[in-house]
Amino acid sequence: MTPAEGPRALGVDIGGSGIKGALVDLERGELAVERLRLETPQPATPEAVIATAAEVIRFFDADGPIGIGLPAAIVGGQVMTAANLDGAWIGTSAETLFTAAVGRPCTVLNDADAAGLAEMRFGAGAGVSGVVLVLTLGTGIGSALFLDGRLVPNTELGHIEVRGKDAELRAAASVRKAKKLSMEAWAERLDEYIDRVDQLLWPDLIILGGGISRRADEFVHLLTPRPRVVPAGLQNEAGIVGAALRAAELPAIRAEATRRGRRPASGAR
Asked: What are the angstrom distances between the C-alpha of 261 and each of 76, 219, 254, 264, 266?
């Protein structure tokens, strides 16, 4: 690291269609180098996904913390869900598997929680108090919930029921593409989903992330929500930034939890 460089960590964002990684400038909250993206293997078994993620990690050949966002609920280090992964993930210890594969400690957290952490620190949620909900719109719908800046981990709100289906099966960005929906038709579905979530949580702010956030000017104005809705400031890089951020800050989080005589929350693992 040259004198001009700030502290860095490696972030990896594992999605249903792509595995993306980059070194992150932790002071600026931005990618320090061009990211590398590889296709998510199908089926997305633990062995196949870990091998691809390890390839991304080794590409950067960098020291320092490694953070990995995985599209699953992570409780006590254990994978609890696998909606957009192979079911063989459920019950595995993700951190143990990734650490063994790359030979260095890895921090694993829910991918939407990672994106939310980045948005709350560096993006559209910076300095916002109250209830903030970050929704990542991609292969599925991820969610990250914050109360006065503190993460409530593993909310998985993409799986609430709308019209008898998982919400993400109706309103994820991938559905718009697969069904060849116009932006207006897809926005109507998204609007209905946001209204359902609003009735459950009454957030003060909703931040829309994922790759589709780059096209926010094409659909956000079509929405009719009660709370304020804005596009993610970091767009589709938020997951990488947030994973790196959590990996770098985790030792301090665990030390504080130990000082207070309690275990860190599952999202702080």
From this structure: 17, 47, 10, 10, 15
